[in-house]
Automatic annotation (TrEMBL):
Residues 27-81 form the HTH cro/C1-type domain. This is HTH cro/C1-type domain-containing protein. It comes from Litorimonas cladophorae. One of its GO terms (molecular function) is DNA binding. InterPro entries: ASCH_domain (IPR007374), Cro/C1-type_HTH (IPR001387), Lambda_DNA-bd_dom_sf (IPR010982), PUA-like_sf (IPR015947). Pfam families: ASCH, HTH_3. Transmembrane segments: none annotated.
Length: 263
């Protein structure tokens, strides 16, 4: 049987194909490539053969159904939004974020699926002051996220931006490991070192089954925090809602110009 796990199958739209007819047909094609009959696929999905036939004959498929079908093949569903580099969105973010173009004319933003981690990159994490202080003090060694690239390699530097009212870059840490786990397991395993109340934890992860735990090591603080106004003026920096890839000039400045205190 042809194995699809770990493979990337790129789907492209076509002006000659009605999208209402193409999704189910694409799933049928992937199933056949995997060497599975409809009956075998039905067993994997724990549904009747008629249900598989219905899915493969439709175009308006729920994302949850699409994800289950693809995962039953041993693959992973990922949905991106591709914008031309001249789009208003691209003009808005190109100076604030370290964007990589897929080609000279396109920017891709992930909508659904685990993010791929860009090679040789470090990240900036936006963290509330009550948590960033505990990270810098060495008490909090795990940061929690609803979404983060699972492929982030060990040793990736996480620059810690402390949000309002501090609004400054305050330190950095090495990411030892990124774990994607069921939310219940995250709480049972990291309750103490994540330094978060159960109520706040439940509110943060509401609506998701899995979350991400970033384990920190080699935590150090900046001797002098780098305020937001200077970050903006020198590096075109805007605080991310969750995380962004650190631009080269920002990384160089934080590592060379600003003394750090190791804990």
């Amino acid at each position: 049987m042809t194995k699809l796990k770990g493979k990337i199958v790129e789907a492209r739209d076509s002006n000659s194909v009605d999208i209402n007819d193409s999704v189910g047909a694409s799933l049928k094609h992937l199933r056949k490539l995997s060497g599975l009959t409809q009956l075998e696929m039905a067993k994997r999905l724990d549904v009747g053969q008629a249900a598989v036939s219905k899915i493969e004959g439709r175009g308006d498929i729920h994302i949850s159904t699409l994800e289950k079908f693809v995962e039953a093949l041993g693959a992973t569903l990922k949905i991106d939004a591709s914008f031309p580099s001249s789009a208003k969105l691209a003009l808005t973010v190109k100076d604030a974020f370290d964007i990589i173009h897929t080609d000279d004319n396109q920017l891709v933003f992930p909508i659904f699926g685990d993010d791929e981690f860009k090679r040789n990159r470090d990240v900036v994490l936006s963290i509330r002051p009550q948590y960033s202080e505990k990270i810098i003090s060495g008490v909090k060694t795990v940061e929690l996220r609803r979404r983060f690239p699972i492929a982030a390699p060990s040793g990736t530097t996480a620059y810690i931006y402390s949000t309002s009212p501090v609004r400054a870059m305050v330190g950095m840490a090495d990411i030892k490991r990124v774990l994607k786990m069921p939310v219940k397991e995250i709480w049972s395993q990291f309750e103490e070192v994540a330094c978060i109340e159960k109520k706040a934890f439940d509110q943060y992860f509401e609506g998701v089954e899995n979350g991400f735990a970033l384990q920190f090591e080699n935590i150090r603080s900046l001797k002098t925090p780098l305020p937001l106004n200077e970050l903006r003026e020198r590096f075109g920096f805007e605080p991310p809602q969750s995380f962004l890839y650190a631009k080269h000039d920002l990384r160089r400045a934080l590592n060379n110009e600003f003394a750090v205190i190791h804990h």
